[in-house]
Amino acid sequence: METLILKDDQIKRAADFLADGQLVAFPTETVYGLGADATRPDVVKNVYAAKGRPSDNPLIVHVDSPEMVWQYADNRYQTQAQKLMDQFWSGPLTIIMPIQPGALSKEVTGGLSTAAFRMPNNQATLDLIKTFGKPIVGPSANTSGKPSPTEAKHVYHDLKGKIAAILDDGPTVIGVESTVIDLSAKVPTILRPGMITENELMNVLGDVASDHHKVSQKEIPKAPGMKYKHYAPNAQVIIVDNVQDFPKAIKQYQNEADTIGILATDPVLEQLSGNFKTYSLGEDVISASKHLFAGLRALDDTQVPIILAQGFPETGHGAAYGNRLNKSAGQQHFKTQGEK
Ligand code: TXA
Ligand code: MG
Known about the structure:
alpha/beta; DHBP synthase; Rossmann fold; 2 domains; globular; binds threonylcarbamoyladenylate; binds magnesium ion
């Protein structure tokens, strides 16, 4: 199969592919998604196959409006959900709610009685859903386990020949996936941190709990996706939490490998010199979030076996960055000699 790259003046073409039961990758403000008709189980199955994703991991249902949500969701949490939608949609917040019995297939929900809904802040994709007339499922459009795609070329690299088209709208703005909040829990619970922070959600909902701790293979996680290996480049990633440790870390790992990769902000990179590959995370944790996945992929392309990546405090906007980076590193942090 040839994979076409479409631009935002070709929305109709993309919608026609979806109507024909084909897969179309779409842009969002967070990462690119792998789109398919959410109402057709036979087509949704192909999403799992294209990604190589375990099929017990439910998918986000992308909509063009709150009205589209209420065609599928149960209205038990409508008051709370509406407050969140008013405040944060369109935007990087995914809301989990119970659905009307039988409204969505088990291929979408993973057999749960809830589903995840999101209205992305990207005009091309909102137009695509509107033109198509139905919601589209969309996990991140990468091979399962790899860093999520923030540019059309990342999608092409992972999925060329497996999907009909990619709707290309340039690099994504945020770079890490949406915050996922489960309204069906006793207390509304954050299952995955993102750019909408715990504090922002508390301001709207009052009480909010957090459940994005490490999940082992044996546990049954609330967001099934949290148990799988994620965001991992081919290189081993090691997190450097204290930027003063970079020279020591570089010295140590250059003994093990000829060339290593450094993923850090400009102020840190400016202080370092030596023979290594670098990729800039910009200035702060917001720009670091935007460039993290692209940086992991770009350094992987240079074949370095080790990437030293800058850590940030995991609070506020740093929670999403830390969550993704810890997974791509398999929780490995640089330790100076004597540290446990
Ligand atoms: O920013 C995003 O959210 C991107 C863009 C493309 O919209 N999408 C994305 O989808 O990250 P995905 O499939 O990679 O992540 C969805 C997460 C998974 O961890 C999944 O297990 C969880 O949401 N999830 C989906 N439905 C759920 C449900 N009914 N109950 C609990 N967790 C659910
Ligand atoms: Mg993903």
